[in-house]
Write the structure tokens for this entry.
Amino acid sequence: MSEQTGTPLSALATVGHATPRIDALERVTGRATYTADVVLPGMLFARALRSPHPHARIRRIDTARAEALPGVRAVITHENGAVWWGAGSIAGGGQYNDELKQITKQRRYTFNNPVRFVGEPVAAVAAVNRHVAEEALRLITVDYEVLPFVIDPEEALEPSAVKIWPEGNLALNTRNEAQPNAVRRGSLDEGFGAADEVFENRFTTAFVHNAQMEPRASVAHWEGDKLTVYTPTGGISNCRHDIARDLGIADENVRVVCQYMGGNFGNKNQNQDADLIAATLARKAGAPVRLELSRKEDWLGMHGRWHTIQRYKVGVKKDGTITAIQSRAISGMGGYRKNSGGVSGLELYECPNVESTTYPVYTNRTSSGNNRGPSDPQGFFGIESMMDEIAHKLKMDPVEFALKNMRKPSAQLQYTNYSLDECIRRGAELFDWKRRWRPTPGSDVGPVKRGAGMSFMAFRAGLGRSSAMLRIDARRRYTLFVGVTDVGGGAKTTMGMIAAEELGVPLSQVDVVSGDTDRCPYSVGESGSRTTIMTGYAVVEAARDLKRQIAEHGIPAGNDVLTASATPNPNSGGKVRSCFGAHFVEAEVDTELGAVRITKYVAVHESGRIMNPLTARDQIRGAALQGIGQALREDLLYDRRNGQPLNAGYYGARHMTHLGAADIEVTFIEVDDGFGPYGAKTIGESGIILGPAAVANAVSNAIGRRITDIPIARDRIMGALA
Amino acid sequence: MKTFVNANARDFKEAATLARQAARDGKSAAFSGGGSDLLGLIKEGIAAPDVVVNLRSVRNAQRVQDASGGLTIGGLTTLDDLSRDGAVRQRFAVLAEAAETVATPQIRNVATVAGNVCQRPWCWYYRNGFPCFKAGGRTCFSPTGENQFHAIFGGGPSYIVHPSDLAPAFVALDATFRIAGPSGERTLPAADFFVLPRENAARENVLANDEVLTAVQVPAIARDTRTTYNKIMDREAWTHAVVSAAVVLQMDQGVCRAARIVLGGVAPIPWRLPQVERLLAGQRITAELAARAGEVAVEGAMPLPKNRYKVPLVQSLVKRTVLDLATRT
């Protein structure tokens, strides 16, 4: 096979075989110790007081009565316990690092004055038990000067809007300029001039919370100058560095431990304010402290996916060739900027004339930040809805339109392998697209109508630096040390499988030590779905080194051990490395009840070699279900007159339960592009990207009306049909 | 969460007396059956009773008994027990169907019949601590706010919808509610138990602070009567009705002798549709008549800006539920 399509797989002994998680028993029997289960001798319990106002200046905060309550050990506020939380607001919203922290002017502290959203911490209390801590919160008096607020990001850009930051409501970039992010190539004038038809539309997407099962908790424990933080984090190494930087102490004086985690979805990358608040309270009280957030605090106090308003103008020729794309998007970031606010998707299309402008905007709402494919599902919903509409208007099959216009490899753009076209073709076939898609939308007779929609994607699968250590003892037991946490994707198991494969031993002979910065070397952490590729490749190299040592020295005897380590930093030789996928959805809409049922969902992915079919399939299924939830249900509603959130939590946000879960049929196209561990690529985030677009397109195809705002809830469907 | 005192009651009279005593001592009291609603309200700071009168210590009030063809349902019967009871399933399907749509299995295992009927509104303004009528304030935030799930009938000055699934079923079955107070018992038709906000905007029913719903009596129904509960939800479990319909039809070879139709999720009380009942009585139920029933059902609806969709939704719900039940074989 050519380089562009990759090579077929060779069979392996462990990798590629469906393998239950190595810690499944602990998890399902309740023996797994999650952060909120950690109990240390003399540990105190902490609770945070949070702002009831969307925007207010604190004139005075009186903690005397709380401090006097028997059992209270420490009370902190913005006056005596604020720590500059670097990851809480980042200039430009880029990949956070030491330099960006220094550049950032619009800084977030663990306690801020003014407060900029409902649910922002104002004070925290550590006490002998949680009841005393909660009682103490009630005794804190805060004198607020309530300020005008803005909830809507479009209104926030109006000159008359209240300024949430002195520089205005357009978030500053890395040069601290209030400028939107703009990408331009070619000439729009030429592009639209060459078009036979020009289409325009506006789409909106809602804020959706990550909704991971485990709410935030953090346990902090000082022993002299050494701080140990037990915290749910997808990246212990980065979390340690972030905590050390924010507290102004050396990395080696911070230990971060996360043995088990109850879900991440981007809500638990880096350090969070809870870690810093727990550490500050623990130092002040001279005892370990566990800070826990309630579900509602977690919903409002952490972050979710940024909501967007997207406008597109697209020029096309009669034959369906796209000649120009102009986009203008506004992203609601809340009171602080935890991420880029980017809106992706345009990069899928081969178009010489493009102008894309994105405005990340502050509002007095809960912060927006990382959420599984941070900028993807919302952007793909917009552009893929737009393209679906254009295909229909041109009387073209959307699959043909996609195959015609999608970006393909070229001399300037080389991939390690490329299989997007194959994903689309295979998906269309498995789904029976020609039969399910309605050339005339809404043409089914009767109140219950079906329709089909599709969407496709590419997601980065780049290589990078990570580490692993491996040891063998005289009993031929192998111990693998990797700085990963299993956030749900099965990383501990995958790392063990890779070691077993390379060593040529059964998985049962490998112990995996993970989730502890004092015991494990650096890992990139579970953001960007990178663990398998990066840390997995380090495991391969460490195992190779250990095999060489065993070949040279033999199996160790007595108390001897052999150890190996590796810190590779591979690259793909200037070629783009991506995973690819296409989702095909059939939706059934009961037009009299405004109800949508997903009657078929086919997901075809090429993620290189699949390490563990069991967990890989469930990653795609779970992600697709989240995408459906985003398409049809989830939102965080605010009352516009008083800036209060109304439906925080699983009940209010209508999160899908197992009863509502559609059957997601997952197919992997497996190839080896010669990079990564055995050709593995990214999976975890890629599966969520396509759901909103494909579901929305299917609903439009069923009912014959384009609903341009997600979630496509009952009121919107019935409103569109009224 | 505010600290409170727990007081176990041996019987309902003692429960009522404990509540009255608390009031005399200048304290607030609240009754707790399963506690699935009250404890949530307390944790969220929406309710802050000084005394929680625990009803789980009351004996012989958690079962369903046959009563000359009808039923006497103890107020402390769990929703799970109610939905599994043989007599209920066989003769009063509307009750079993309503009970099994409530919340989740975990909640149905503890939540009680009386608690379901007396639960506080799930309006998001009330549940988020807004100083609305239901919280003792003097305003309703929904008419000019987010009113997607609010009332289209009987609203004003509060626009909550009654959250109970059992309540429409009890009204449809013409049940009688038994109420205990410190000085004795009284009974009321289910329909008279609930009050509109224009009568009392702070409360959803006639219970005084020291009164407790102890049992529900469901009268016998004619043998050729069929019943059902149809609940439209925004997800498959753990949510309240967007709209719902409890329908009781006495059928005689395709002809409807008598009908009772009560809606949930549309009004601050279970909302009976007498005009639809009259329309159906004595008629053969055809698709055309069912469609007409749907149209009549929404006559007089006063939707708010964001809940207009509830009007066609109720229309379809009534049409389908009546036709399905009448033509069921």
Remarks:
- The interface with chain B takes residues 131, 134-135, 138, 296, 447, 592-595, 633, 637, 639-642, 644-647, 650-652, 654-657, 659-660, 713-715, 718-719, 722 of chain A (CB under 8 Å).
- Chain A has three domains: 24-32+464-566, 38-147+217-292, 376-460+574-721.
- The CA atoms of residues 75 and 125 of chain A lie 4 Å apart.
- Chain A has 19 helices and 26 strands.
